[in-house]
Amino acid sequence: FQMGTKKDNENKRELAKMLYVGGSEVAEIAERVGVSRQSVSAWINKNGWKELRAARSITRPELVNKLLVAINNLIEDVNT
């Protein structure tokens, strides 16, 4: 049994990230990348992939509206 190189692991993690952010499930990612489900879950939690995945699913108008609301709230906080 030979351990993968650091570069191999980085490549696997990057592929897993793209698959996860793209909407694939943990079990499918683990199988395709060749790592355990636990490894994929650890990468998701350690590297903030849930937030990236959520950000990908938001539409541009939704994002603009959220930003405008946040800006408005900041302005109100400053003025009170």
TrEMBL record:
Membrane-spanning segments: none
Q: InterPro entries given for it?
A: ATPase_terminase-su_N (IPR010332), Homeodomain-like_sf (IPR009057), WH-like_DNA-bd_sf (IPR036388)
**Chain ranges of the Terminase ATPase subunit N-terminal domain:** 13-58
* Domain of life, source organism: Bacteria
Which Pfam families is this protein grouped with?
Terminase_5 (PF06056)
Q: What protein am I looking at? A: Terminase ATPase subunit N-terminal domain-containing protein
